[in-house]
Design a protein that fits this description.
By secondary structure, the protein is mostly helical. It has five helices and two strands; from the N terminus they run H-H-H-H-E-E-H. It has a two-stranded antiparallel ribbon.
Length: 166
């Protein structure tokens, strides 16, 4: 995997861009597409948020090659964990595993019991075992699994490439 330009910037920038694209597509599908995420969907976003933060740190420290390599490797490990989490979620969707006992999403706010009751009455819980969206038979969790695996691979390859002397 050969990237043009300065690897101190291009490697973290590539992983940052890919991570932001994945998170952006999830947020767009939620806020503009009306696909409310379940609790497992929210959990699968956290490694992406961490990847974005770690790559921002790597970009802020372009001269520290060792730190950049470590941060790329950390992102690869985080996203490998996300592959496992997404695989669990896909298994829940296919009824291979039992999902968490609480499969409702969204923030509950209200200052009084009546306000909480009114909010809960108008809310349909989002189930972890029923995909809200399928494209070519693959759910959002399935696409997250594929994206996590792909970006983990890219981050690991970039870390290994930068480990070699120029």
């Amino acid at each position: 995997m050969n990237l043009p330009g300065n690897p101190a910037v291009s490697s973290p920038l590539l992983v940052l861009g890919l991570s932001m694209a994945v998170v952006g597509s999830a947020l767009i599908s939620q806020h503009w597409g009306g696909l409310d995420p379940c609790i497992l969907c929210y959990y699968q976003r956290y490694p992406w948020y961490a990847a974005i933060g770690l790559m921002a740190v790597a970009l802020a420290l372009p001269r520290l090659r060792c730190a950049r390599i470590g941060l790329l490797a950390a992102v690869a490990a985080l996203l490998a964990f996300n592959v496992a989490l997404a695989a669990y979620h896909v298994g829940v969707e296919h009824k291979l595993f039992e999902g968490p006992s609480s499969c409702a999403s969204g923030a509950i706010t209200g200052n009084t019991i009546d306000a909480l009751r009114a909010q809960l009455a108008g809310r349909k819980p989002v189930r972890c075992d029923e995909p809200a969206f399928l494209l070519f038979g693959i759910s959002m969790a399935g696409y997250n699994l594929l994206a996590s695996a792909a970006v983990a691979y890219v981050a690991l390859r970039l870390a290994l490439r930068e480990r070699k002397p120029a």
